[in-house]
């Protein structure tokens, strides 16, 4: 398939036009909502893109001129590596491809509810897969760039992925799952470890998305999470914390108070504050230091007419990381005092915060 360079595209949400993206002569990118969407829709990025007929231009170069909500659609980590390899194999320099063209290469396969036209990729489909085979190919791909793989096929499995570990997006009985595989530095049982972390988080009363351990003949299993941005053929709009704040998750520059402030500003369910407090405590007490701004997201709830905190994801122990990606009370290696201090700032009762902390400790120690 020949890849076309794209200067304009249409942004859709469940077959409804949201707006339009266009690249100008000075390489700046503009976004404008569709007139009908302004009447019937919602802001896809509440702080940066309020509903209006204005042409929005992001003067920041954080996301190469894109607003964070569109950057969320693009692959990151493993998916970005696959995209770059696939383009290079076709004789295209990945660094020369415009952000709008990259969006058409993801189209409707990206995370979240947005899709893009024109489409220059194969849409998600229910195809045969062998997880052990995918795991082997992923490892070989990481170890040796010279091996001649069917990159189109591998890209269709995991090209919209984020995060460092190899992943496959698979469809089972009309449900979409993200399955993770070990990277080179991971122990073979990393999938089982993440499964146990999610079991513990669920036992702590945290809203964890549906998960399972997929069987394997070569390891103890692959961790899989059911996608919460897809259900019954419908997409759900999602935006990450870092993209809401128009900042990259690759630089540790957020504190958990940023998360709580965003919840207070955009969430319709204020109990999300307590849910986020539980997650912060779990990450600190369990040792999940990979708690960056892309590992917290918000979903637009059409019934509630507003944003809600998404289910928890990417929960795992990170013993090799020295500090948390998001600080607690300014501390990158926080303790119980910091957790209680944040609770006090949020005007949560000391009794409630103490109970949450003690329950988590009991679960993870037992």
Q: What is the gist of this entry?
A:
By secondary structure, this protein is an alpha+beta fold.
Question: How many runs of DSSP E, i.e. beta strands?
Answer: 16
Pick out the low-confidence regions. none
Radius of gyration from the alpha-carbon trace, in angstroms: 21 Å
* Major sheet strand order: 4-3-2-1-5
Largest sheet: 5 strands, antiparallel
Overall helicity = 25-40%
Beta-strand content bin:
15-25%
- Estimated structural class: alpha+beta
Average pLDDT, all residues:
91
Order of helices and strands: EEEHEHHHEHHEEHEEEEEHEHHEEEHH
Number of helices: 12
The end-to-end distance, rounded to whole angstroms, is 55 Å
Shape: globular
Explained architecture:
By secondary structure, this protein is α+β, with helices and mostly antiparallel strands. Among the domains are: 100 residues, Phosphorylase Kinase, domain 1; 129 residues, no CATH class. Helix content is 33%, strand content 18%. The chain contains twelve helices and 16 strands. The protein has a five-stranded antiparallel β-sheet with strand order 4-3-2-1-5. A four-stranded antiparallel β-sheet has the order 6-7-9-8. Strands 12-14-15 form a three-stranded antiparallel β-sheet. α3 runs antiparallel to α6, α9 packs antiparallel against α10 and α11 runs antiparallel to α12. The N and C termini lie far apart (55 Å).
